[in-house]
Amino acid sequence: MMAFTDQIHELATPLWQQSFEHPFIQQISGGTLPKSVFRFYLLQDRYYLSEFGELHEQIANQLADAKGKRFLLAGAQGLKDGEMAVREGFFKTLNISAQEIKTTPIAPTAYNYVNHMYAALYRGTPERAVAGLLPCYWLYNEIGKQLISQGSPDSLYQRWIETYDSDDYTDSVDQMIELTNQTAERVSDSEREAMTATFLRSSAYELDFWQMALDQEKWEA
Ligand SMILES: Cc1ncc(C[n+]2csc(CCO)c2C)c(N)n1
Protein backbone atom coordinates (compact mmCIF):
# COMPACT_ATOMS: atom_id res chain seq x y z
CA MET A 1 0.00 0.00 0.00
CA MET A 2 1.04 3.55 -0.71
CA ALA A 3 2.56 5.33 2.32
CA PHE A 4 0.23 7.83 3.96
CA THR A 5 2.63 10.67 3.20
CA ASP A 6 2.74 9.67 -0.49
CA GLN A 7 -1.05 9.86 -0.58
CA ILE A 8 -1.22 13.31 0.97
CA HIS A 9 1.72 14.52 -1.09
CA GLU A 10 -0.18 13.56 -4.23
CA LEU A 11 -3.30 15.36 -3.04
CA ALA A 12 -1.26 18.48 -2.32
CA THR A 13 0.44 18.50 -5.76
CA PRO A 14 -1.73 21.27 -7.28
CA LEU A 15 -1.07 23.52 -4.26
CA TRP A 16 2.65 22.75 -4.14
CA GLN A 17 2.95 23.32 -7.88
CA GLN A 18 1.55 26.81 -7.38
CA SER A 19 4.21 27.42 -4.73
CA PHE A 20 6.98 26.24 -7.11
CA GLU A 21 5.67 28.58 -9.80
CA HIS A 22 4.93 31.49 -7.48
CA PRO A 23 6.57 34.83 -8.45
CA PHE A 24 8.22 35.01 -5.00
CA ILE A 25 10.08 31.73 -5.66
CA GLN A 26 10.79 32.52 -9.31
CA GLN A 27 12.23 35.90 -8.33
CA ILE A 28 14.35 34.38 -5.54
CA SER A 29 15.79 32.13 -8.21
CA GLY A 30 16.26 34.93 -10.74
CA GLY A 31 17.66 37.30 -8.12
CA THR A 32 15.00 39.91 -8.98
CA LEU A 33 12.85 39.72 -5.84
CA PRO A 34 12.71 43.25 -4.38
CA LYS A 35 14.56 43.40 -1.05
CA SER A 36 11.50 45.14 0.46
CA VAL A 37 9.49 41.98 -0.23
CA PHE A 38 12.16 39.71 1.22
CA ARG A 39 12.41 41.91 4.33
CA PHE A 40 8.64 41.68 4.78
CA TYR A 41 8.84 37.89 4.42
CA LEU A 42 11.67 37.65 6.99
CA LEU A 43 9.89 39.83 9.53
CA GLN A 44 6.75 37.72 9.24
CA ASP A 45 8.64 34.44 9.15
CA ARG A 46 10.26 35.39 12.43
CA TYR A 47 6.85 35.10 14.07
CA TYR A 48 6.19 31.90 12.19
CA LEU A 49 9.46 30.24 13.21
CA SER A 50 9.11 31.16 16.84
CA GLU A 51 5.57 29.75 17.01
CA PHE A 52 6.64 26.72 14.98
CA GLY A 53 9.25 25.90 17.64
CA GLU A 54 6.69 26.44 20.39
CA LEU A 55 4.26 24.13 18.58
CA HIS A 56 6.89 21.37 18.47
CA GLU A 57 7.12 21.54 22.26
CA GLN A 58 3.39 21.67 22.83
CA ILE A 59 2.68 18.80 20.43
CA ALA A 60 5.50 16.76 22.02
CA ASN A 61 3.86 17.25 25.43
CA GLN A 62 0.66 15.69 24.17
CA LEU A 63 1.87 12.98 21.82
CA ALA A 64 1.59 9.41 23.11
CA ASP A 65 4.53 8.07 21.12
CA ALA A 66 7.86 8.49 22.96
CA LYS A 67 10.02 8.43 19.83
CA GLY A 68 7.84 11.11 18.21
CA LYS A 69 8.10 13.21 21.35
CA ARG A 70 11.89 13.03 21.26
CA PHE A 71 12.06 13.94 17.60
CA LEU A 72 9.81 16.99 18.09
CA LEU A 73 11.82 18.24 21.06
CA ALA A 74 15.05 17.80 19.12
CA GLY A 75 13.37 19.59 16.19
CA ALA A 76 12.53 22.59 18.38
CA GLN A 77 16.19 22.83 19.39
CA GLY A 78 17.40 22.26 15.81
CA LEU A 79 15.20 25.11 14.66
CA LYS A 80 16.85 27.51 17.10
CA ASP A 81 20.39 26.39 16.21
CA GLY A 82 19.71 26.11 12.48
CA GLU A 83 17.15 28.12 10.58
CA MET A 84 16.62 30.80 13.23
CA ALA A 85 20.39 31.33 13.59
CA VAL A 86 20.74 31.67 9.79
CA ARG A 87 17.98 34.26 9.86
CA GLU A 88 19.87 36.37 12.43
CA GLY A 89 22.56 36.72 9.75
CA PHE A 90 19.94 37.80 7.18
CA PHE A 91 18.61 40.44 9.58
CA LYS A 92 22.13 41.83 9.95
CA THR A 93 22.80 41.83 6.19
CA LEU A 94 19.57 43.73 5.57
CA ASN A 95 20.04 46.08 8.54
CA ILE A 96 16.77 45.04 10.10
CA SER A 97 16.87 46.63 13.54
CA ALA A 98 15.50 45.40 16.87
CA GLN A 99 13.19 48.40 16.75
CA GLU A 100 11.76 47.37 13.37
CA ILE A 101 11.24 43.84 14.63
CA LYS A 102 9.46 45.14 17.70
CA THR A 103 7.16 47.48 15.83
CA THR A 104 6.17 45.10 13.01
CA PRO A 105 2.88 43.37 13.82
CA ILE A 106 2.14 39.87 12.60
CA ALA A 107 0.25 40.06 9.26
CA PRO A 108 -3.10 38.30 8.70
CA THR A 109 -1.83 35.28 6.73
CA ALA A 110 1.04 34.53 9.13
CA TYR A 111 -1.42 34.87 12.01
CA ASN A 112 -3.95 32.58 10.36
CA TYR A 113 -1.35 29.95 9.46
CA VAL A 114 0.02 29.81 13.00
CA ASN A 115 -3.45 29.70 14.51
CA HIS A 116 -4.48 26.94 12.11
CA MET A 117 -1.72 24.78 13.61
CA TYR A 118 -2.68 25.64 17.19
CA ALA A 119 -6.32 24.88 16.34
CA ALA A 120 -5.28 21.50 14.92
CA LEU A 121 -3.70 20.73 18.30
CA TYR A 122 -6.15 22.27 20.78
CA ARG A 123 -9.45 21.86 18.95
CA GLY A 124 -8.24 18.67 17.26
CA THR A 125 -5.55 16.16 18.21
CA PRO A 126 -1.74 16.00 18.45
CA GLU A 127 -1.81 13.57 15.48
CA ARG A 128 -3.47 16.18 13.29
CA ALA A 129 -1.06 18.80 14.50
CA VAL A 130 1.88 16.60 13.40
CA ALA A 131 0.39 16.49 9.88
CA GLY A 132 0.03 20.28 10.00
CA LEU A 133 3.79 20.69 10.56
CA LEU A 134 4.86 18.53 7.65
CA PRO A 135 4.30 20.84 4.63
CA CYS A 136 6.63 23.35 6.21
CA TYR A 137 9.53 20.89 6.27
CA TRP A 138 8.79 19.05 3.08
CA LEU A 139 7.71 21.84 0.71
CA TYR A 140 10.77 23.96 1.55
CA ASN A 141 13.02 20.97 0.94
CA GLU A 142 11.45 20.39 -2.49
CA ILE A 143 11.86 24.08 -3.28
CA GLY A 144 15.49 23.99 -2.12
CA LYS A 145 16.23 20.93 -4.28
CA GLN A 146 14.57 22.53 -7.33
CA LEU A 147 16.39 25.85 -6.98
CA ILE A 148 19.86 24.63 -5.97
CA SER A 149 20.91 23.38 -9.43
CA GLN A 150 20.46 26.81 -10.96
CA GLY A 151 21.28 28.83 -7.84
CA SER A 152 20.52 32.54 -7.52
CA PRO A 153 22.72 35.42 -8.72
CA ASP A 154 21.85 37.21 -5.47
CA SER A 155 24.08 35.96 -2.65
CA LEU A 156 21.44 36.45 0.04
CA TYR A 157 18.85 34.50 -1.93
CA GLN A 158 21.48 31.86 -2.63
CA ARG A 159 21.98 31.49 1.14
CA TRP A 160 18.22 31.16 1.60
CA ILE A 161 18.11 28.38 -1.02
CA GLU A 162 21.09 26.55 0.52
CA THR A 163 19.37 26.42 3.94
CA TYR A 164 16.74 24.13 2.46
CA ASP A 165 19.01 21.84 0.50
CA SER A 166 21.52 20.93 3.22
CA ASP A 167 21.97 17.27 4.18
CA ASP A 168 21.14 17.89 7.84
CA TYR A 169 17.94 19.57 6.87
CA THR A 170 17.01 16.83 4.39
CA ASP A 171 17.55 14.28 7.20
CA SER A 172 15.11 16.17 9.43
CA VAL A 173 12.54 16.19 6.60
CA ASP A 174 12.89 12.41 6.24
CA GLN A 175 12.39 11.97 9.99
CA MET A 176 9.31 14.18 9.95
CA ILE A 177 7.87 12.15 7.06
CA GLU A 178 8.54 8.96 9.03
CA LEU A 179 6.93 10.41 12.16
CA THR A 180 3.84 11.35 10.14
CA ASN A 181 3.57 7.84 8.67
CA GLN A 182 4.00 6.18 12.07
CA THR A 183 1.40 8.52 13.54
CA ALA A 184 -1.05 7.78 10.71
CA GLU A 185 -0.68 4.03 11.32
CA ARG A 186 -1.92 4.35 14.90
CA VAL A 187 -5.16 6.24 14.19
CA SER A 188 -8.62 5.57 12.73
CA ASP A 189 -9.67 6.25 9.13
CA SER A 190 -11.57 9.36 10.15
CA GLU A 191 -8.57 10.70 12.06
CA ARG A 192 -6.39 10.04 9.01
CA GLU A 193 -8.86 12.11 6.99
CA ALA A 194 -8.53 14.92 9.51
CA MET A 195 -4.72 14.63 9.26
CA THR A 196 -5.03 14.90 5.47
CA ALA A 197 -7.23 18.01 5.72
CA THR A 198 -4.76 19.64 8.14
CA PHE A 199 -1.83 18.87 5.82
CA LEU A 200 -3.67 20.34 2.82
CA ARG A 201 -4.65 23.45 4.73
CA SER A 202 -1.05 24.04 5.83
CA SER A 203 -0.05 23.59 2.17
CA ALA A 204 -2.57 26.28 1.19
CA TYR A 205 -1.18 28.63 3.85
CA GLU A 206 2.36 28.02 2.55
CA LEU A 207 1.15 29.27 -0.83
CA ASP A 208 -0.61 32.26 0.75
CA PHE A 209 2.56 33.12 2.68
CA TRP A 210 4.47 33.99 -0.53
CA GLN A 211 1.60 36.14 -1.72
CA MET A 212 1.36 37.84 1.67
CA ALA A 213 4.98 38.97 1.28
CA LEU A 214 4.49 40.09 -2.32
CA ASP A 215 1.42 42.13 -1.33
CA GLN A 216 3.05 43.32 1.91
CA GLU A 217 -0.28 42.37 3.42
CA LYS A 218 -1.75 44.58 6.14
CA TRP A 219 -4.73 44.37 8.47
CA GLU A 220 -7.76 46.40 7.46
CA ALA A 221 -7.83 49.58 9.49
C1 LIG B 1 6.11 29.95 6.30
C2 LIG B 1 7.28 29.02 6.36
N1 LIG B 1 7.09 27.74 6.09
C3 LIG B 1 8.13 26.88 6.16
C4 LIG B 1 9.39 27.32 6.50
C5 LIG B 1 10.54 26.39 6.57
N2 LIG B 1 10.77 25.88 7.89
C6 LIG B 1 10.36 26.49 8.99
S1 LIG B 1 10.71 25.61 10.40
C7 LIG B 1 11.40 24.37 9.55
C8 LIG B 1 11.92 23.15 10.22
C9 LIG B 1 13.37 23.07 10.39
O1 LIG B 1 14.11 24.24 10.29
C10 LIG B 1 11.36 24.68 8.19
C11 LIG B 1 11.89 23.83 7.17
C12 LIG B 1 9.53 28.69 6.79
N3 LIG B 1 10.73 29.21 7.14
N4 LIG B 1 8.48 29.52 6.72
TrEMBL record:
Q: Which CDD domains match?
A: TenA_C_BsTenA-like
Q: Quote the catalytic activity from the record.
A: 4-amino-5-aminomethyl-2-methylpyrimidine + H2O = 4-amino-5-hydroxymethyl-2-methylpyrimidine + NH4(+); thiamine + H2O = 5-(2-hydroxyethyl)-4-methylthiazole + 4-amino-5-hydroxymethyl-2-methylpyrimidine + H(+)
Could you tell me which pathway this protein works in?
Cofactor biosynthesis; thiamine diphosphate biosynthesis
Return the Pfam families for the record: TENA_THI-4
Q: Which residues form the Thiaminase-2/PQQC domain?
A: 12-215
**Which keywords annotate this record?**
Hydrolase, Thiamine biosynthesis
For this entry, list what GO says about its biological process: thiamine biosynthetic process; thiamine diphosphate biosynthetic process
Q: What EC number(s) does its UniProt record assign?
A: 3.5.99.2
- Tell me which GO cellular component terms the UniProt record holds: cytosol
Q: Which GO terms describe its molecular function?
A: thiaminase activity
What is this protein for, i.e. what is its function? Catalyzes an amino-pyrimidine hydrolysis reaction at the C5' of the pyrimidine moiety of thiamine compounds, a reaction that is part of a thiamine salvage pathway.
- Share what the entry says about its subunit structure, partners included: Homotetramer.
Family recorded in the similarity comment: Belongs to the TenA family.
Task: Name it.
Answer: Aminopyrimidine aminohydrolase
